[in-house]
Amino acid sequence: MLLTHNANPNIPVTEYMGVAAHFAIYKEHAKCLKVLLPVTDRDCLYRNVSKNMHPLVMAIQASSTECLEMLMEDGMDICTKLPLGVFAHFNPLFTTLQYSTNVSILCHVALNWTLVGVKYLLDKGLPCNAQTPEELPPLLMSLASDNSDLFTLLLKYGANPNIYHSLANGNVTTLMAIERDVKTLLTVTSETGVKQEIFGKYLCKLILCKADLVSCIRDTDKDQEVFKYNLYQVLNKCSMTVNLWPVLTLLFTFCTNLSISQEFKKHVYNEEVISYFNTIEDSTQSLAHACRCSIVIELARKRRYQERHIRSLPIPSLLQEYLLFLDYGPKASSLIVDSLGYASKNINICSSSKIGTDYYEETFEKWNM
Q: Using N-to-C axis directions, what is the helix angle for 66-73 and 116-123, rounded to 10°?
């Protein structure tokens, strides 16, 4: 009725320059938006408005995709880059690694947002990986904002877990996952009602994705001339030292041909645990360990990596214990089994690898030859 009486839908009504169409999106009034879109000026809708009032930002966090679908049919570019604002002033992604502060809508997703709109855009072809070297990969932003659900969703949609940068030593995703995990202690309740401490919330998901772990350990020089984001920096920031041993155990266990300098060990660990990490380091040199890791990862991806499942495999008990990493001791074994088991419940990665009893029997037969 207001429009029939020549009401102007393009008059800003807030300091953020929002017009009527913005409020229709905010209130999720799809019918109102349908009426307003034909008479709303595109500059008012997309260009002359603050980032938080941008239609894409508001529509993606709605509980339904009606407004999002309508805006896309109207020609909205879902690949547009939007500025991050004050967050970029202090975050190492921009201060150290110097990524562009104009980022994908996926980098704006907040913890309290529903992911319905995100899934819809990903299904419609929104890239989940950076398209240029300067563009911030959304996977890194999900780590920076500690958005575990988004991190998991991006991996499911094919986000590349291996991200390298000229100002970082090794895989940046692994470094950020370690940094996040050493700050966080996760307590969960098992199906039997027992409380468990879970470590490596992000790192275990990267393990299941077969991400590059070892590159952040190799060639790490704490006195390097060029300032780089590296493992020394990550571990020096660790305030919750109780998390350090478990997270590094997970990291080292799923590396192959691991080589850790004595200087690095002394810089990070207490003397009493150096021999323990030496044991893991030595084990990673063998082909048997590489085969073990592959089998364990495939089992975990199929949600079959629990002690009871391993004990039920038709293989010698010695090999069952080897798959459970009991050669590292019972404490490390429980850590690996519990952490990977928890991660596998929260991520579903499609795998074409051959899985089943026949596969394990064939593999162990080769080991025994």
A: 30
